[in-house]
Amino acid sequence: MFTIGEAALETGLTAHTLRFYEKEGIIPAPKRISGKDRIYSEGDVMFIRFICSLKSTGMSLVDIKEIVKDGCVLEKEIPTISGMLLKRKDILQKHLINLRNQRKEIDEIIGVTEGKLAIYEQMLDEYSQLNSDGD
Predict the structure, then answer these.
(1) d(Cα 88, Cα 57) in Å, to the nearest integer?
(2) What is the pTM of this model?
(3) Total count of domains within the chain
(4) Residue-wise pLDDT tens digits, 47-56
């Protein structure tokens, strides 16, 4: 079991963000000790890490909330989840397109950066040879 501070450390979030996510319905309300202090289970922390992984890839909180709003599909009966699965699938497919576009942009930036580094290395080599020839 984790206090809110410990859960924050485990997930890389702040206690303020955890309370915000709870208030917004992005994460379920954790159990409380004496009706006051929040206590997070290992499962809660794993779920929050999942949320963080989606967020770190640029997924909006609106889409994350839609994906998690009905709970875990593994805990549902098959006939009741088809609409839920279709909605989640649509969100993830759109997100995957965005990620692939980002990857393409990053690959282009990496290529430009590598090109610049090669030019700088060549210039430094030439400068080094000029200085060593003068010795």
Answers:
(1) 16
(2) 0.69
(3) 2
(4) 999 999 999 9
